[in-house]
Specification:
Blueprint lengths: L15 H11 L4 H8 L6 H8 L8 E2 L10 E2 L17 H6 L14 E2 L4 E2 L13 H6 L17 H13 L4 E5 L2 E5 L1 H11 L20 H16 L3 H13 L6 H15 L6 H14 L13 H6 L2 E3 H8 L3 H9 L5 E5 L5 E6 L3 H4 L6 E3 H8 L3 H9 L18 E3 H14 L9 E3 H7 L4 H12 L5 E2 L10 E3 H14 L3 E3 H8 L3 H9 L5 E6 L2 E7 H10 E3 H8 L3 H7 L8 H4 L5 E3 H15 L1
Parallel strand pairs: 1-2
Antiparallel strand pairs: 3-4, 5-6, 7-9, 8-9, 10-11, 12-14, 13-14, 15-17, 16-17, 18-19
Bound molecules: zinc ion (2 copies).
The site of one zinc ion has 7 residues, from loops.
């Protein structure tokens, strides 16, 4: 075995194939030609190469393996597909320092020089020819372009990843992500980059880990950037990817379906413990953002994640609260209970509920009063209590026991507090008689729901004087009679309150036809409203009050005087405002003012 005339020595860790090319180039051959000359099939290949180098002891070469040459190389656990095959990448500044190809440049995922912080080259920036070994080692293209003159700075995230890759070829490296660290080998780093490079695509990602044309530097630059971004902005960039998935399938409750390829990557392809940080970040995201259920079926999730996840399926909630699933479902549909609704397989609806809300479903029954008890505690009829709820004076709460009733329930504190507030502002006694208890006024003064609500509000603010004994209830509230009348009159005058003609007839104890006549004669003021497509007359309550004060019927007068209608009509000197003999009206009405002297003098004297 004759030594070669020119013998540039291999640099420890140099890729075997790159060294052979370099050696061949120095001696004016191509690599395959040189090996045919050297290897006659007589000696082991290591001995062949060593002999060609005049007995030089060979260092450890790095991958990839060279087909047909049986010299051991350090593969660092990588596959042949992880190395560039035909193309070479190089850093022009490194080549200026020492003209040999660094082992890291053969990794398809290596795109920048971490030392010089520049992008690697693959072609001549001027003529776009792929770099040949000869040109690369010379630092200049056949077209004359010097590579050092074409430097593209690398980004921070690219450098971070390249440092890890280059470092890992010597020893395991520490990946630091906030307060999380992972110790990785080259093989693990490369695989992680392969599988996570495209996660940023979101739900469109279909075949993770299958990266086409990674041999091309431009393709590699783009894909590796994807992985570098996730690492550089951990975990925000990753969480942003996850958001894309959640947004794409808002109605799906299956983690595996929603996160599809991404789920496969982090739970299957990258299943080793060293990649746990991906799963941790994923599960942390789920705790905050996953509205579906995480149950025991998700065996791959950490126990803590399943326990801490707030959203629970209806079956679980039903078990915990003793409320039926159907009832719960109805509560969610009617917005009584905030729930997350999904469409499951076969269009079946799935619902989850934040378990923090469960306390609301199972309150202490002792805190609540049903309608009957609340009415008793307050001292009002149930119909009045309903009015007080309808007008917002007293709050009825959600039903504490969803199983049994759909009646209103009242917080004991709300009911007692309301009464207590009234007791606080009550006076020890009223300055003048006569007085009237609220109960009486409610029964005989036609106080409607809105008026009662307003009265109680006014009373609570201490704006109308009243008394209420220590243990007294609502019905025991006592007002100064004249004061209450004034207040009611004022309130009615201020609040526009309309009644229909039949209601007005009721209130005045007249026939409807008579009320229509009074409206026609402008004695009652009415206006027209459209209701269900019909025009309807309505009469303001103040106009009714005014009418009552101004006019009186003959019948009512006769009753008062205990006389027959006919004889009273004959004896009165006053002309009615309307009536059968006046204007053909159905009934006689007198103006009260006109009667003043007449009734008091004429009739009383005669009797
Ligand atoms: Zn460099
Ligand atoms: Zn060129």
């Amino acid at each position: 075995m004759k030594p070669l005339p020119l013998r540039p020595l291999p640099v420890p860790s140099e890729a075997l194939s790159d060294y052979l090319e370099r050696l061949a180039n120095a001696n004016g051959y191509r690599a395959s030609e040189l090996w045919n000359i050297l290897d006659r099939g007589e000696y082991p290949h290591e001995q062949v190469l060593s002999g060609a180098l005049n007995g030089h002891i060979l260092p450890e070469f790095s991958g990839p393996t060279q087909q047909g040459i049986d010299i051991e190389v350090q593969l660092s656990g990588l596959r042949a597909a992880d190395f560039t095959r035909m193309r070479r990448r190089w850093c022009p500044l490194c080549i200026e320092n020492a003209a040999w190809l660094r082992p890291a440049w053969r990794l398809k995922v290596m795109t920048v020089c971490e030392m010089h912080r520049v992008q690697l080259l693959e072609t001549c920036p001027v003529c776009h020819r792929l770099g040949s070994i000869q040109a690369i080692l010379h630092g200049a293209c056949e077209c004359g372009a010097r590579y050092v003159q074409f430097i593209v700075p690398a980004t921070r995230k690219q450098i971070q990843l390249a440092e890890l890759l280059a470092g890992s070829l010597k020893d395991r490296v520490i990946l630091t992500l906030g307060n999380v660290t992972a110790i990785l080998t080259t093989q693990q780093l490369v695989r992680m980059i392969f599988y996570t490079a495209q996660l940023g695509k979101g739900p469109q990602l279909s075949r993770p880990g299958q990266l086409q044309n990674l041999e091309e530097l431009s393709v590699a630059l783009h894909l590796v950037d994807g992985a570098a971004t996730l690492i550089a902005d951990w975990p925000n960039a990753f969480w942003h990817c996850l958001e894309l998935y959640v947004e794409a399938s808002p109605a799906d409750a299956s983690v595996r379906r929603v996160f599809g390829a991404l789920y496969q990557v982090i739970y299957h392809h990258l299943h080793e413990p060293v990649f746990q940080f991906w799963r941790d970040a994923f599960e942390l995201f789920l705790l905050d953002h996953w509205r579906g259920e995480l149950c025991g079926r998700h065996r791959l999730f950490k126990e803590h994640t399943i326990q801490a996840h707030p959203n629970r399926g209806l079956a679980y909630v039903a078990r915990m609260t003793g409320v039926g699933s159907e009832t719960l479902k109805r509560m969610v549909h009617q917005d009584w209970l905030p729930g997350n609704r999904f469409t499951g397989p076969k269009k079946r609806e799935l619902i989850t509920v934040d378990s923090k809300l469960l306390a609301r479903l199972i309150p202490d029954p002792a805190d609540y009063l049903d309608m009957r008890s609340a009415a008793r505690v307050l001292g009002v009829k149930r119909t009045r209590l309903r009015e007080l709820v309808a007008t917002g004076v007293i709050l009825a709460d959600a039903k504490p026991d969803w199983r049994r009733s759909n009646q209103w329930n009242f917080r004991r504190s709300e009911v007692c507090g309301f009464l207590e507030q009234l007791r606080q502002v009550a006076l020890p006694n009223l300055p003048k008689a006569p007085t009237v208890p609220l109960n009486y006024a409610l029964r005989y003064w036609r106080v409607n729901a809105l008026e009662l609500a307003a009265l109680l509000r006014t009373a609570k603010q201490g704006e109308i004087p009243f008394t209420l004994p220590d243990q007294g209830l609502l019905r025991d509230i006592t007002f100064d009679e004249a004061g209450l009348r004034d207040w009611l009159a004022q309130h009615r005058a201020l609040s526009i309150d309309w009644v229909s003609v039949p209601a007005a007839a009721d209130l005045l104890c007249l026939k409807e036809q008579v009320v229509y006549e009074l409206v026609a004669k402008n004695m009652l003021i009415a206006d027209l409203v459209q209701k269900n497509g019909y025009s309807q007359k309505r009469i303001s309550r103040s106009s009714l009050e005014r009418f009552r004060g101004e006019y009186i019927t003959l019948v009512e007068l006769a009753n008062q005087q205990k006389m027959s209608v006919r004889s009273l009509l004959n004896r009165l000197n006053v002309t009615p405002v309307t009536g059968p003999k006046i204007d053909g009206g159905r009934q006689y009405f007198y103006r009260r003012d006109d009667l003043q002297g007449d009734i008091l003098s004429g009739i009383t004297t005669s009797s």
